[in-house]
Fold this sequence. Notes:
This protein is mostly helical. It has helices at 6-27, 43-56, 64-78, 80-85.
Amino acid sequence: MMTLSDQTVEGLQIAINSFLEVAPFLLQQPGVKFLYSTRFNQDPVEAFFGQQRSKGGRNDNPTVQQFCDTTTSLRLQRSETIKALRFKDGAIDTDETPLPKRKRRS
């Protein structure tokens, strides 16, 4: 007979209790008629941290600043504005026009 480890049982209890707490709240939201419990997963979170790890190279313990910098970099890569600026060859259209100076605050 197979038994589950204590960690597995605790994880299942947390997952079930969390779903039972969030389901009534979500079902009260306008336009929500039903919930798919299979849609509740952490795949997007795991994908995000996988991207963080791949950007970090060999650094297994990034500082808070490095983590924030990597997050900013990932956001820029997914930015539709940045994608719209790129040509087919990946170059970004730029010119040498200086930006207007901002007025100083008093």
